[in-house]
Amino acid sequence: MTLSACGSGDDGAASDTIRVTLANHVWTDNIKKALPEFEKQSGLKVEVTQLGEDQLSDQYNVKLNAGSADIDVMMYRPLQEGKLFARNGYLADLSELVKSPTWDFSDFQSGPMEATTYEGKPVGIPIITEQEVLYYRKDLLAKAGLDAPPKTLDELKDAAAKIKAAEPDVAGFVARTGKSTAVTQFSSFLYSFGGDFVDGGGKAAVNSDAAKQAYAYYGGLIKDAGPANVSTDMGWPEAMAIFTQGKAAFYTEANSLYKNATDPAKSKVSDQVGFAPFPAGPGGSKPYNIPSWALGVNASSENTANAWKFIEWATSKEETLAQQKSGVPGARTSVWASPEGTSTFPEDMVAAIEASNKTGVGHDRPQVVKVAEAREIVGQPIVDAITGKDAAAAADTANAAFQQFLDDEAK
């Protein structure tokens, strides 16, 4: 779908028409409604091309590879294609542009900015964030005599086992189990055990002691306290369905999906759902705090200055606050410090997000070019652990394959 907000203008250098390509998302719907005011204030015109994710990827693949200048601003996924775009030189260096004093670059959270930075240079501005939090059933905790949600992974394991033993038809814990889809949610367990997908030298690290412990814990928790006959290909829709049907006490998931659990039309337990910060492991509580989407400037654009004017406005404190009030979590610290910015979220969710903002890690999957392939490799030990196989041996096998992958990608 193409929307021309105020017609089209000259396509040459320094055009007063900014061509913006955006994904189908509530953020996009909101920004489109606000465009007339931006155009009135700036004297510029904005042409928006709005596409589904697959169409968006296809268009970027064609136009960016060809060095096309007919995209000025692009909405992209930093953790899915960000490294590919940056390495290929598709994203303009924003180092000088972010120095705009009234815009306040320092207000952006470090976790999301980590994901939109390449070789020390900002190449994108995060617009939508996600953190992993603990969903839980208040009624089941009370029935089990627990007066607060677990603060550590050890406490989570004990509480999940206790509730499952007392409630035969209810799982103590549920989470994603699919080899690829589970990687993002497993990442917070990995970090909280003190590990990561690669070490400080860029070498594969999914068989470190911390990683082996994390794989064993995640897989073991689902195996021992999870749903009976648990499937090993669950993504978030399947795991969420188990939780919202009242069949699980605890569930770790992206906060962006919380309305599925609190909406009475979607959840049988909507009035009993609580949220808590991700439980601490040996390495502390280190959930991911990531940008699911960001805005960047096409390095081939001939209209960089005006492209930045659009981004500067769309990611301003005022627009970020407006987006957050509509339910789109922002990457600015100021909107989370504002009562107005948190008014539409459950109080315990706000507390969980604020905790994540302080200790969160800026990636939830390996930071590589071929992300899908990497997820398949590092996700295999999750499945093996769930099915009762030796998690440590699976981690060793995965590490060798992942190191080979990294070596091949570096060639």
From TrEMBL:
Transmembrane segment boundaries: none
InterPro entries registered for this protein in UniProt: Bact_solute-bd_prot1 (IPR050490), SBP (IPR006059)
Protein origin, superkingdom: Bacteria
This protein's UniProt keywords: Sugar transport, Transport
Organism field: Nonomuraea maritima
Pfam family, one: SBP_bac_1
Entries under Gene3D superfamilies matching the protein: Periplasmic binding protein-like II
Residue ranges, annotated region (Disordered): 324-343
Record-given protein name: Multiple sugar transport system substrate-binding protein
Keyword Secreted: no
